[in-house]
Amino acid sequence: MQQLTAILKQYGIEPDPTTSMIMIFGIIFLTSLIIHFILHRIVLKLFERRAQGSNRLWLQIITGNKLFSRLAFMLQGMIVNLQAVLWLQKGSEAAQILTTCAQLWVMLYALMAFFSLLDIIAGLSHRFTFAAQFPLKGIFQGVKLVSAIVIGIMMISLLIGKSPAILISGLGAMAAVLMLVFKDPILGLVAGIQLSANAMLKMGDWLEMPKYGADGAVIDIGLTTVKVQNWDNTITTIPTYALVSDAFKNWSGMSASGGRRIKRCINIDTTSIRFLSDEEQEKLMQANLLKPYMAARQQEINSWNDRGDSASSTVLNQRRMTNVGTFRAYLTEYLRQHPSIRRDMTQMVRQLAPGADGLPVEVYAFTNTVAWLEYENIQCDIFDHIFAVVGEFGLRVHQTPTGSDVRAIAAVVAP
Asked: Which parts of the sequence belong to the Mechanosensitive ion channel MscS C-terminal domain (predicted)?
């Protein structure tokens, strides 16, 4: 104010304090408008036009997150604070009010600019494959929360005119309350670090967690929640800390291996299991997939029978081929030569324990693709073939009687 009064006195003007104060605030306001116009209407507009016309992703991300706009507002606050120091009398009430408002403005937009910087880093990190291994969004949200608390303490200390250390020391008595209020963010931050350190989960993984009804791809890993887009396009939200405290299944290992498992049974009616007759053996010998097996198997059986009483009329003293064993050998060779089954992974056809639903014959193999649609087509083609050829071995598929079966039996039995 003294500088303005001295300048006016050179021109023979004797302003009173109120007039000088109004003129100073007018100068500060006018300067702020000019700087705002230059920064936002000229500089930033030119930069945004250049970014829109460019195909560089980093330019589009920066402009989309308003980093320079917030930095410009912060610069305006710094200029207002500088003008208050230059034009107003140090220690005056007007100077204190204006500098306090300017400093609060600067701290607020510095915090928002820092948020924009973190958003830019998060946006650019999607271009790098290694960044997908870390839950950066949750970590950045934790950093934002801590930054907001720190800036909030500094702003409060500025308003009350006390040192931030006094407020921070007072927070010790409120630790229990803070732990209760910020329980989920704290647990989420710790869980995010554990997920990252142990490589338990990343964006795009197929996650299955029946407890929360989640079965789909991970689309977001936040500070407090993880979002899973299920295969029916619904979204399931899971607390981040639940992924550490509870069990879940991550199918990323299957995707990385390049093979997806087929593990399905066909139930054979046990009453249809028997030895093969000579005519049936000759018929099955015509199958290219069975010819090597049957020749080797018949030679082994003949060699064993020659050592015993081959002339005996009972089958208890002989070895013979069974239709279910030959069927299992056929399926084994069929899988081995199937173009969509991986040969470098486990493949077998085995019998499980028989039960009320017959004898389960299980097909265990891995496809050479992990794509869901292709996998299902391959699995269906294999079992279409199995159901079609099972009758060639004199076997029947077990099926619980239906209503039509009961009605057919009743029609025969009825007088």
From this structure: 331-396
Q: Which residue has the tokens 């500060």?
A: 28
Domains of the chain, by residue range, sit at: 2-127, 260-307+314-403
* DSSP symbol at 212: G
- Amino acid identity for residue 342 in this structure: R
CA–CA–CA angle 403, 406, 407 (5° rounding): 85
pTM, two decimals, is 0.57
Q: Six-digit token pair at 383?
A: 């079992």
pLDDT digits (tens, 9 = 90+) for 306-338: 776 655 567 777 788 999 999 999 999 999 999
Extract the tokens encoding 54.
Answer: 């460019």
358-370 pLDDT tens trace: 999 999 999 999 8
Tokens encoding 265: 């049974």
Q: Domain 260-307+314-403: state its class.
A: alpha beta
Owner of token pair 């000759």? 282
Pairing of strands 249-250, 260-268: unpaired
Contact indicator for 80, 98 with CB cutoff of 8 Å: yes
CB neighbours of residue 19 within 10 Å: 14
CA distances from 187 to 54, 149, 179, 225, 294 (A): 42, 17, 10, 11, 63
